[in-house]
Amino acid sequence: MGKGGGCVPSKKKQPPVSDDPVSTTREAEPIPVNDDGRDDIASTSLEPTISSKLKIFIVFYSMYGHVEGLAKRMKKGVDGVEGVEAFQYRVAETLSDDVLIKMKAPEKDVGIPEITAAELVNADGILFGFPTRYGCMAAQMKAFFDSTGQLWKEQKLAGKPAGFFVSTGTQGGGQETTA
């Protein structure tokens, strides 16, 4: 930093003093007032107005229903915010029905539609949810993210806020590495 040349002022260097003794006693000029009855500011309310609700997409993958349960709680929280509405979507399953049966995976909630990458542009914000598998996200979610390459290339998701939530079977099961 050197001697007094940086952000912290030097103890030896005195602060600059104005040569104009009037400047410390001079009062601010009064603000002119329009007496003609009209305002220069538009006659609209200063309260923010939302023409339509903000759309938050909750996009998740859940094989056994744990992340789906988190997604439903997220939706309840988002819907509780005035002027915001949540929409739940699941990503496509990459495993066959035979494999899912052998893994004893429950049926998917048919009331939650699958999403395509192209539909993400319709969201004002996105929350992604997925399980942790050996410290990584589930392959189904990875496949979905891989399908968004064109959107990123064209900057169609630029400026959209996003967040995520994860679930693991144990403490220390890889949440931090998944993040």
Automatic annotation (TrEMBL):
<dbReference type="InterPro" id="IPR029039">
    <property type="entry name" value="Flavoprotein-like_sf"/>
</dbReference>
<comment type="similarity">
    <text>Belongs to the WrbA family.</text>
</comment>
<protein>
    <recommendedName>
        <fullName>NAD(P)H dehydrogenase (quinone)</fullName>
        <ecNumber>1.6.5.2</ecNumber>
    </recommendedName>
</protein>
<feature type="region of interest" description="Disordered">
    <location>
        <begin position="1"/>
        <end position="44"/>
    </location>
</feature>
<dbReference type="InterPro" id="IPR008254">
    <property type="entry name" value="Flavodoxin/NO_synth"/>
</dbReference>
<feature type="domain" description="Flavodoxin-like">
    <location>
        <begin position="56"/>
        <end position="179"/>
    </location>
</feature>
<dbReference type="GO" id="GO:0003955">
    <property type="term" value="F:NAD(P)H dehydrogenase (quinone) activity"/>
</dbReference>
<dbReference type="Pfam" id="PF00258">
    <property type="entry name" value="Flavodoxin_1"/>
</dbReference>
<dbReference type="GO" id="GO:0010181">
    <property type="term" value="F:FMN binding"/>
</dbReference>
<dbReference type="GO" id="GO:0016020">
    <property type="term" value="C:membrane"/>
</dbReference>
